[in-house]
Amino acid sequence: MPEPLQTSLNNALSPMMEEFLYFNDYAMTMLLMIWLSVMITLFIISTTKLYDVSSNSANHLEFMWTLLPILVLTFIALPSMRTLYLLEDQSPPHLTIKTLGHQWYWSYEYSDYKNMSFDSYMIKEQDLTNGAPRLLEVDNRMAIPMKSTVRLLVTAEDVLHSWTLPALGIKTDAVPGRLNQLIFTTMRPGVFYGQCSEICGTNHSFMPIAAESMPVKQFENWTTTLLN
């Protein structure tokens, strides 16, 4: 979860988020190199009295300032295409969860289990326990098994919503009458928070998302308790 005065992105808690962070660092490095080269060139031009008139209209110079941007875009595009490929090339899921957005709460249905569904409402500020984040904690968290591929089917009952968990690098719109799919894997235990990222009405700011990643054995005990 973000902290006050934080300048960097959150730590990656899924393989895809690690890829996103890698590409972000790579792209920012490329941009920094471009900025430094431009600033050095401007400094040299503005401080030196040497000026070659012939190079101002040389064909090789025009060729170079056309070739260099092409190379830069190529170096940025190749890792981006790899990340997009990994985003779509997912293994078969071990668990399927259907998520339904309402005004203004979420419902979760575990399709692999019979009669296993619940609603998730935000806990009001006066009911929070010590240490619980304001406007983010819910009464029923979505539980997911750690190191297992999870498929999330997202839709909405009334208006547009958006199901987002930044720490896992996942986000998709919840559209009435349409199913959107997310496939992800968590690599460590913990509680991950998000919020609806689509303006959906008066209480748009009060329908948070809370997912808890836990070991498989603990997840099985959780499902047993919920079914009983």
From TrEMBL:
PROSITE patterns: COX2, COX2_CUA, COX2_TM
Entry annotated with the keyword Magnesium: yes
Any Pfam family the entry gives: COX2_TM
The keyword Transmembrane helix is annotated on this UniProt entry: yes
Residues annotated as transmembrane: 26-51, 63-87
Annotated membrane topology: Multi-pass membrane protein
Reactions it catalyzes: 4 Fe(II)-[cytochrome c] + O2 + 8 H(+)(in) = 4 Fe(III)-[cytochrome c] + 2 H2O + 4 H(+)(out)
Main location: mitochondrion
Places the protein is found: Mitochondrion inner membrane
Name of the protein in question: Cytochrome c oxidase subunit 2
Organism listed in the record: Phrynocephalus theobaldi orientalis
Gene: COX2
